[in-house]
Amino acid sequence: MMQKKHASTLALCTRMQGLYVLLVTNKQSNILEDLETLRLVSKLVPEFCQGLLEEEAVSMSAFDLIFAFDEVISLGHKENTTVLQVKQNCEMESHEEKLHKMIIQVRTEAWRVQDKGFNRCKHRLHHDIAALLESIA
Predict the structure, then answer these.
(1) In angstroms, rounded to a whole number, what is the distance separating the alpha carbons of residues 103 and 107?
(2) What is the pLDDT of residues 8-27, one digit of tens each?
(3) What distance in Å separates the CA atoms of residue 29 and residue 27, rounded to the nearest whole number?
(4) Where are the beta strands (DSSP E) in 1-137?
């Protein structure tokens, strides 16, 4: 664990294999609470990156990590939560998310129906052209 001070901020850093987790706070904050927050955040990274501690895995899970960090830190203060609670909260579906999924599903189904109709018309057109060519020949 590394600690670096600046004029009014304090940076806490911990290394996780090839990655670093950095927590920036002010000097007036409780250092013990900050260290606990850093530990909790560093436990969340492998949980949301499927255990892969690589830059690419973190990039692919960026939004999930942001949501998880938001569950831990609210308005600059650590929430009293655990890794399990954070995972459960992040897995919950909201009403808006369900609505969005339903809209996507309806649009996808409409596209499939439209695509089938287009393919039928295309097939009939090819059949009609072939019949017309046979009648000419």
Answers:
(1) 6
(2) 888 899 998 888 988 888 88
(3) 6
(4) 2-5, 9-16, 19-26, 73-74, 77-78
